[in-house]
Write a structure and sequence with these properties.
Layout: E1 2-5, E2 16-19, E3 29-37, H1 41-47, E4 64-72, E5 84-88, E6 97-101, E7 105-107, H2 114-117, H3 120-134, E8 142-146, H4 151-162, E9 166-171, H5 174-182, E10 187-190, H6 196-201
Parallel strand pairs: 8-9, 9-10
Antiparallel strand pairs: 1-2, 3-4, 3-6, 4-5, 5-7
Length: 202
């Protein structure tokens, strides 16, 4: 199969297209035929050798994908060949197929485009883990999101609103703040035009 391969650390210009062996669905894993893959900040860090985990060279980057299950390993009962899924794979996503632990694969709802589903695992997963698992955000609490117009920032705004929190979005321009408002932020702070500490004290 074709894949984007990192043979040496550096910028994205170091990545090459190459033929690599097809993945196999080992026990507890599924093979996903990739229809779309997300591109995230950690992907760039990983190929530069600056991420917290450092796979051995050569490796296939790509944290998240969406596609169709093509093979199911032993012990997997909740997924089947033909299922439309999104997956957090960590590495390996920039390929025609990727093998992923079944616990990191979720069905995509009918009507949702796979190109949209492919960008859910990293940004929504990061925000959900931070706000629900770690912060245990509750309705009525106040959430301040810095850099709120980025991928993780916007999903934090959305999740905070869905949980019933008072959501303050801080970003660096009126255009970015309009985007935050469209995603559910109730209060907006332009930290390039105003002192953040002063605005929070109001």
């Amino acid at each position: 199969m074709r894949a984007i391969l990192c043979r040496e650390l550096g910028g994205p210009e170091k990545l090459v297209e190459a033929e690599v062996p097809d993945p196999v669905a080992t026990p507890g894993h599924v093979v996903v035929e990739v229809h779309a893959a997300g591109v995230n900040f950690p992907d760039g860090l990983m190929v530069a050798g600056a991420y917290q985990t450092k796979p051995e060279l050569p490796f296939i980057p790509g944290f998240e994908v969406a596609g169709v299950v093509r093979a199911v390993g032993d012990g997997v009962s909740e997924l089947a060949v033909g299922d439309r899924v999104a997956a957090f794979c960590g590495i390996g996503g920039y390929a025609e197929q990727v093998a992923v632990p079944a616990t990191r694969v979720h069905r995509v709802p009918e009507g949702m485009d796979l190109s949209h589903a492919a960008i859910f695992p990293v940004v929504y997963g990061t925000s959900y883990h931070a706000l629900v698992d770690r912060a245990r955000l509750r309705a009525g609490e106040t959430l301040l999101v810095l850099g709120a117009a980025g991928g993780v920032g916007l999903t934090a705004v959305q999740i905070g609103k869905a949980l019933g929190a008072r959501v303050l979005a801080a970003a660096s321009s009126p255009e970015k703040l309009r985007l935050c408002a469209a995603h559910g932020a109730g209060e907006l702070i332009d930290y390039c035009a105003h002192d953040l500490a002063d605005r929070l004290a109001e």
